[in-house]
């Protein structure tokens, strides 16, 4: 739009100018602070909602993981059938367990000798089969000898020998050399299969946890003294001599069951120069009150507790063995550590909470052995000692790893 304007005595055309905008007023400091507080509250609400959702998600994932692990722990593979003319060794079909297959004398195994139950609840490998060996098929095709015979020129396997047969009054009688037995109607002599030699101790898939003895056509597992043979016929279960009253501990001693035996432990309160103790329970000693100003007495432990643990030989490490906790705290500081020099090569103490310390086994111990550790808990107020509490832990290590 244009309007007429007068310039230098003449009429001209001038552009129509718009009015200038009014400047806006800045918000006050009070308004800005209110806005920031509202934003802060909104973010806090969102953060709380996010944390709650995250906790709920973690709980659901933990429940799902636990249920899945429970299924895998209880799940087993299907029971495999032994091959024809053979047999299966192994009665546990859980995940990670092995089974083994053997063929009868005169047959050879085709396929895997060992199968493992996988996480998919399927057996590894293919189902094996037993087929007649070349020596047994030739022996079966030939007619049985009718009189005492000697081994043929072809050398049979060391587990198979020809029998010695004679005919008398229409019947046939066969005998075998010492250590061999007749095999069915094939009239050949076979030696027993030593399963213990096939699956020796210390090897994967071993038949027995401790000792294996071969028997005619089978095997038998034995356990050392202090153990019973488990239901599976392979593992060993510890006998609790203390629970079954099979010990010779006196009334003043504490019977401690160990793996494969027991120990008679004696709990005695210490004798110190400047402090005296009294037994307040079978496993605890308390210090008597100190004289006023007797610093040597106040430096002695307020209480001494005794604990006994049983473990197997060469137990894997690191491993949590024991926890020491304070029921109530009077001072402002708690300190945990190993007292003296006992057990420093095998143990370590770590703080696991505000009022809790943990005794750890840091190196495996080869048994049999008895190892001691002293865990000290000190209570302080402004770096001034209020009290010391000693826990003596004795570890009885079995000579066996089971």
From TrEMBL:
Belongs to the fibulin family. Disulfide bonds join 103-130. GO terms for molecular function: calcium ion binding. The lineage of its organism: Eukaryota, Metazoa, Chordata, Craniata, Vertebrata. The gene is LOC116036335. Residues 75-132 form the Sushi domain. This is Sushi domain-containing protein. Residues 132-158 have a biased composition (Low complexity). InterPro entries: cEGF, ECM_structural_protein, EGF, EGF-like_Ca-bd_dom, EGF-type_Asp/Asn_hydroxyl_site, EGF_Ca-bd_CS, Fibulin_C, Sushi/SCR/CCP_sf. It is found in: Secreted, Extracellular space, Extracellular matrix. It holds the Pfam family Sushi. The keyword Repeat applies. Residues 128-159 are annotated as: Disordered. Keywords: Disulfide bond, EGF-like domain, Extracellular matrix, Repeat, Secreted, Sushi.
């Amino acid at each position: 739009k244009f309007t007429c304007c007068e310039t230098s005595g003449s009429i001209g055309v001038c552009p129509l100018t718009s009015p200038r905008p009014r400047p806006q007023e800045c918000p006050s400091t009070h308004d800005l602070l209110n806005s920031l507080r509202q934003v802060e509250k909104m973010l806090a609400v969102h953060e709380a909602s996010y944390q709650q959702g995250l906790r709920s998600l973690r709980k659901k994932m933990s429940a799902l993981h636990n249920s899945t692990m429970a299924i895998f722990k209880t799940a087993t593979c299907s029971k495999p059938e032994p091959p024809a003319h053979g047999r299966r060794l192994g009665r546990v079909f859980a995940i990670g367990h092995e089974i083994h297959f053997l063929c009868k004398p005169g047959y050879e195994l085709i396929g895997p000798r060992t199968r493992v139950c996988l996480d998919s609840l399927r057996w590894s490998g293919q189902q094996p089969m037993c087929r007649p060996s070349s020596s047994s098929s030739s022996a079966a095709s030939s007619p049985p000898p009718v009189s005492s015979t000697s081994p043929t020129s072809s050398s049979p396997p060391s587990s198979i020998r020809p029998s010695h047969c004679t005919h008398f009054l229409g019947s046939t009688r066969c005998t075998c050399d010492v250590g061999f037995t007749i095999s069915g109607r094939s009239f050949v002599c076979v030696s027993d299969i030593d399963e213990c030699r096939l699956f020796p101790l210390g090897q994967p898939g071993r038949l027995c946890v401790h000792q294996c003895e071969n028997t005619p056509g089978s095997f038998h597992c034995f356990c050392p003294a202090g153990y019973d043979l488990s239901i599976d016929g392979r593992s060993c279960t510890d006998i609790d001599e203390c629970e079954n009253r099979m010990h010779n501990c006196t009334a003043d001693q504490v019977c401690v069951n160990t793996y494969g035996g027991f120990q008679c432990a004696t709990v005695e309160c210490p004798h110190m120069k400047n402090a005296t103790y009294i037994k307040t329970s079978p496993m605890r000693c308390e210090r008597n009150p100190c004289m006023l100003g007797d610093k040597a007495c106040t430096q002695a432990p307020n209480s001494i507790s005794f604990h006994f643990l049983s473990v197997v030989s060469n137990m894997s490490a690191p491993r949590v063995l024991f926890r020491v906790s304070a029921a109530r705290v009077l001072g402002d500081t708690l300190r945990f550590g190993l007292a003296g020099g006992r057990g420093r090569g095998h143990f370590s103490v770590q703080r696991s909470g505000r009022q809790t310390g943990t005794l750890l086994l840091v190196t495996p111990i080869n048994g049999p052995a008895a190892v001691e550790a002293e865990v000290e808990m000190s209570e302080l107020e402004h770096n001034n000692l209020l009290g010391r509490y000693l826990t003596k832990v004795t570890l009885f290590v079995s000579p066996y790893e089971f």
